[in-house]
Amino acid sequence: MPTTLLPGLLPGPLPMHGIGGAKDLPISPELAISGAVAALTISFIVLALAWRTPRYDAATDGRPAPAALSTLVTSAGWSVAMRVLGLVVFGYAAFAAVLGEDLLTNPFFGMFYVWLWVGLVFFSAVLGPVWKAISPARTINLAFARISGSDPDEGLFRYPAWLGHWPAALGLYAFVWLELVYPYSTELGPVRLWCAAYVAVMLLGGALFGNDFYENADPFEVYSTLIGKLSPWTVREGRLLVISPLANLNTVVPRAGLVGVVAVLFGSTAFDSFKDSAPWVRFVQTNSFIGEHDLGLVADNLALVTFCVGVAVILSVGSMLTGVAPGQSRLGLPRQFAHSVVPIILGYIVAHYLSYWFEVGQDTLIKASDPLTTGADYLGTGDWSVNYWLSYHPTLLANIKVLAVVLGHVVGVVAAHDRAIRLLPPRHHLTGQLGMLVAMVFFTAGGLYLLFAA
Question: Per-domain residue ranges for the chain?
C-alpha cells in the first residue's frame, strides 16, 4: 500500500512497508535472511528424518469446542447477526462513497483499502472464513431467492468445474492493480466504480450459478477462506470444532486457478515492497514521461505481472520436479501444493501491513464518525486519537515481522512435507521435496530482501 494513500490521516511517515528500510530498524537484513534460510533448511532436515507418515487428517482431527460456543456459532441467529453486520458496514461505506466528498479524508478509502483488504486477513486468520459469513452479495442473493421462492444454492446453471478459482484470481489482480498501479487509486470516482462493478458481477454470478459462484469466484471470499484455513476453528456436521491449523489447511480444495490465486496474493505483496525500493523509485522517476508516454506506469504494470507470474512459475517448477504415482498427472502437482504458500502469504501480510492496519485502521474509525465531513460524530469516535504504540517500539515491531515471515515459511514447509508423503511415491518422499525446498528458500530470501529494501 503506498504511503501516500491517505495523506493527512497520519502525523508522519509510518513503517507501512513490512520491515522497512534496513538502516531504519535495529535488525541486520543479512542476519534476518541468513537466519530465515537456516531455519527453513533445518526444518526440512528434521521433517525428512522424523516425519515419515501423514499426520493431518481434517476428517478425524479436532475436538469439540465448548458446547455454549458451538451452539452460538452454529445457530441461525448468529448467521443472521453476521449478515446484518455485513450489510450495515456495506451500507455505511456506500453512504460515504456516494455522498461523501472526494477527499482523502473520506473514510471510504480506509474502509476499502484497510478494513476490507487488510483487516479481512487478520480476522479470517483468527476466526475463520469471515467474508463468507458477512458477504453482502451473499445476503442480497439470499434475499432475492427468498422473495422469488428459489434456492440460493442453486442458480440457473451449474458452475463449471474447469473455471475453478480463475475468476477470483482475476478479481484479486484487478484489486491489486487498482491499489498498486492505477495512478488515480485515491480518487473517489474510480474506486467507487470498481466497487460497483464488483457488486454487479457478484449479484449476476449468484443469480446464474448460485452460492457455488461465491465459493469459487468471489475474490474476497476465496481470499478469506484460504486464510481462514489457518484458523483453529472448523464446523463439521453442524458442530464447531477446535482443530490444528495445519489439519485445517490440509482441507484446501486443489481447484483450477488456485495457483493463480496464491500467485497474485504473494506476488502483489512482494511487488508492493519492490515498488518502494530506492532503485525502482529512481528508475520510475527517471523514466516517468518520454514524450506523451508514461513509461513509469508501463513499467509498474509489467513489474506487477512479472512478480505474480514469477511466483506461479517458481511454485509450479518446484512442485513438478519429482516423480509421480501411476495415473497421476505431473501438471496437477502445483495446485496440490499451492496450499503450502498460504502460510507464507499470511506471514508477509503481517510483516507488510501490521502497523499500517493497526494505526490507519484506527484513524479510519475516527474519520468514519464524520463520513460527509460536516462535523458530525455519528459513531462517537470523532474525538478519539490514534494509538501509535507499535511505531514507538521499532525493535519489537521488527522482531514480530521477521518472526511472522520465518514462521509462515516453516509452516509452509511442514504443509508441503505432509502433502508430499501423502501424495508422492515412497521413493520420492524425500527427493521430491527438494524442488519445493529450493522454491521456499527463494521465496524466503527474496521476500525478506524486498521487505528490507522498501
Answer: 29-374+387-453
Closest by Cα among 192, 181, 167, 198 to 267: 181
Give the C-alpha separation, 265 to 447, whole Å.
Answer: 13
- Contact in structure between 254 and 332 (CB atoms under 8 Å): yes
**What pTM was estimated for this model as a whole?**
0.90
Distance CA 453, CA 278 (A): 7
Residue with cell 532503485: 279
Residues 6+ apart with CB under 8 A from 37: 441, 444, 445
C-alpha cell, 243: 482443530
Residue 244 CB neighbour total at 10 angstroms: 15
Q: Do 107 and 97 touch, CB atoms closer than 8 A? A: no
- SS3 of 47, please? helix
* H or E element that contains 403: helix 394-423
d(CA 372, CA 382): 13
- Give the pLDDT confidence of 167-206 residue by residue, as tens digits: 999 999 999 999 999 999 999 999 999 999 999 999 999 9
Q: Which amino acid is at 284?
A: V
What single DSSP character describes residue 326? T
Return the C-alpha cell found at 57.
487428517
Plot region of 96 (φ>0 → left; ψ -120 to 50 → alpha; else → beta): alpha
Give dist(CA 344, CA 443) in Å, integer.
9
Secondary structure E strands in 283-439: 289-290, 293-294
Cα(200)–Cα(333) distance, rounded to whole angstroms?
Answer: 35
C-alpha separations of 192 from 85, 118, 185 in Å: 21, 18, 10
Half-sphere exposure in the Cβ direction for 372 (13 Å, CA): 7
- pLDDT digit string, tens, across residues 372-405: 999 999 999 999 999 999 989 888 888 888 889 8
- Name residue 411's amino acid: V
189 class by beta-carbon count within 10 Å (0-12 exposed, 13-18 middle, 19+ buried): exposed
Distance between CA 404 and CA 36 in Å, rounded?
Answer: 11
Q: Give which of 247, 13, 273, 268 is closest to 117, Cα–Cα.
A: 268
Provide the 8-state DSSP code for 118.
T
Summarize the chain as % helix, strand, coil (round to 5): 65, 5, 30
